[in-house]
Design brief:
CATH class of the largest domain: Alpha Beta
Mean pLDDT: 95
Helix content: 40-55%
Low-confidence stretches: none
Radius of gyration: 25 Å
Number of domains: 3
CATH architecture of the largest domain: 3-Layer(aba) Sandwich
Number of helices: 16
Distance between the termini: 28 Å
Strand order of the largest sheet: 9-8-11-10-12-13-14
Number of strands: 20
């Protein structure tokens, strides 16, 4: 099954398009005008909308379109969908809530929608969904604020989420410090298309380098896991499965009208099939940022470079702490590396790991210390702690670091802090191809994600 007409359509009908400011039909129509799609507003109240001819019904369109986005209230949706089927429209996105998640009346509406899809052969995304956001194509049906401008540069991470708000808010925050979004898909109530359909599509999509999902329930579980096992050999898959506790499972049923499965079974199945499980939205996006951009390490030996000794100590404590995800250890630098660091920085610097080149170091000194540590065979991963407050540091440090990262065959992860300017500098680093985080904990956790991925691949290879 090709999802191209859903994710990258050439022509789109917006059912319920409107002139009313702030209405869903108006917002989505305006968003889609930035794409290259041929648009057909549909609403019997208007003859024109935003300079385009407006049609009373999809049945009045001059030709079938690739996709219909239905933005009208739930009670009117089944009839509108039926018209889409009669017109031969292959894909429908139903934005409205008020279906299976609300009770018996909503379930009746959802069954009517499903029956119409089966009868006419069109596929449904939703209902109760934000739809699709595809930055590379400026294709966007998301009608809430979602940091689309900060995500506009695009990237290789395809996000599949059952909760639109979880996905959009997580991406909005991640976009502040840089996130490489390929495509966002909100599943909503999953009355037809579901996670397995999109996992298969993104697994074959050559521009998708990493897949991240948030799910509350998993349909076609065996098929989903077997597919994940095949795809995860080539692309990282990161999974946030909510409903881990009894209270969470009950909330899933209330939110989606579906039951959540046993959490222990989910964790074991994910690990066995190459899915890296995370516990919240921050972990989801942090893992995706690292796994999309960074090379995998040979092992878990970490070198730490800092111009502030105290922060180096904190980082070392996090690294040496036990963690079920993946073990890390402080790398032991060779005597030659230690002497080189002191010779190329300051005589009162500490060349032992964690390396403290002190706040008196310049950007050039920082770059030379990085180079020395990256060339040490005992270092698998470098975590660099970056501060712009010392008087001897200026923005040239950005290029000093980026130049070393571009030529390194080892992952380099930054911790950056600069008061109210922290996110701005992290975003500038991201645009130079450098992955950074605003806390030491998150930087160390990113290193664990990389080692965990390496261990998973080795385990899957051994089981072949």
């Amino acid at each position: 099954m090709s999802l191209e007409k859903l994710l990258d359509p050439r022509s789109v009908a917006v059912v319920g398009a409107s002139t009313k400011e702030g209405s869903v039909g108006r917002i989505i129509l305006e968003e889609l005008t930035r794409s290259s799609c041929l648009l057909y507003p549909v609403n019997p109240k208007y003859e024109t909308l935003l300079g385009m001819r407006c049609y009373p019904s999809v049945l009045d369109l001059p030709e079938p379109v690739d996709l219909a986005v239905i933005t009208i209230p739930a009670p009117a949706v089944p009839a509108a969908a039926e018209n889409c089927g009669e017109k031969g429209i292959p894909y429908v996105i139903v934005v409205a809530g008020g279906f299976g998640e609300t009770g018996e009346e909503g379930r009746v509406l959802q069954r009517r929608l499903e029956e119409s899809g089966r009868r006419h052969g069109f596929r449904i995304l939703g209902p109760n969904t934000l739809g699709v956001f595809f930055p590379e194509k400026n294709f966007d049906t998301v009608f809430v604020e979602h940091g689309d401008r900060s995500l506009a540069a695009g990237g290789g991470v395809s996000v599949i989420t059952q909760s639109g708000s979880v996905g959009i808010e997580a991406l909005g925050l991640a976009g502040n410090i840089g996130f490489g979004l390929r495509t966002f898909v909100g599943l909503g109530n999953k009355c037809d298309l579901e996670e397995t359909d999109f996992l298969r599509w993104f697994g074959k999509d050559r521009k998708t380098s990493c897949i991240a999902f948030y799910l509350e329930s998993i349909g076609r579980g065996r098929e989903f896991l077997e597919l994940a096992a095949d795809i995860s050999r080539e692309k990282p898959i990161i999974g946030l499965k909510a409903g881990r506790t009894e209270a969470g499972a009950q909330a899933v049923s209330s939110h989606t009208g579906r039951l959540a499965g046993s959490d222990l079974v989910v964790s074991g199945a994910f690990k066995q099939h190459g899915i890296q499980r995370v516990l919240d939205d921050q972990e989801l996006t942090d893992a995706a940022r690292a796994l999309e951009k960074l090379p995998l390490p040979r092992g878990g030996r970490v070198g730490v470079l800092s111009p502030a000794g105290g922060y180096g100590v904190i980082c070392a404590d996090y690294i040496e702490s036990q963690n079920p995800r993946a073990a890390l250890s402080m790398a032991r630098l060779s005597p030659e590396t230690e002497k080189r660091i002191i010779a190329e920085t300051l005589p009162f610097a500490s060349g032992r790991n964690p390396v403290d080149i002190t706040a008196g170091a310049t950007g050039a000194m920082y770059g030379k210390a990085m180079e020395a540590m990256l060339q040490d065979p005992g270092v698998d991963i470098l975590i660099s702690l970056v501060f712009f407050s010392p008087p001897s540091i200026d923005d040239s440090l950005l290029e000093q670091i980026a130049a070393r990262v571009r030529t390194a065959d080892k992952p380099v992860i930054l911790f950056v802090t600069y008061g109210p300017f922290t996110d701005r500098y992290l975003l500038r680093f991201w645009k130079e191809g450098v992955v950074g985080y605003p806390s030491i904990l998150r930087a160390v956790r990113a290193a664990r994600f990389l080692v965990e991925r390496k261990n998973l691949l080795e385990s899957m290879e051994a089981c072949r």
